[in-house]
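Figure 2 data, in text form.
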Amino acid sequence: MPIPIANRVVLVVDDESDIRDSISALLYFLGYSTLLAADRDRALNILRDSPPDAVILDSQMPGMGLEEFLDKVRAMKAQPPIVLLTHQKKDIEQHGLKHVLPKPFDMEVLSRTLRDCLAAS
């Protein structure tokens, strides 16, 4: 039996506060709890300390590179599904992620993608 949305926690990782806050507000409206990170280092700390049920991740951020971040996540015991938000077409095929959304994205499509990836996990 699937876990109800109200018990699901989603980590939103984006260096742009407007995007991070918009996604968080949508998820709150849909009944999810959220954790927020403005950079990938903070996201890794959250993943280690209190693993979420899913991650929404911006592909283009300063600091740690996307591939390094994904390698570190793949080495962790808890590996929540990741929804990657990207402007780069190459990211859609390159990183082996099942859930990739091109930017700009529609909030309804993001909601459906998140629901599908949580149902599959």
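Caption note: The CA atoms of residues 40 and 64 lie 6 Å apart.
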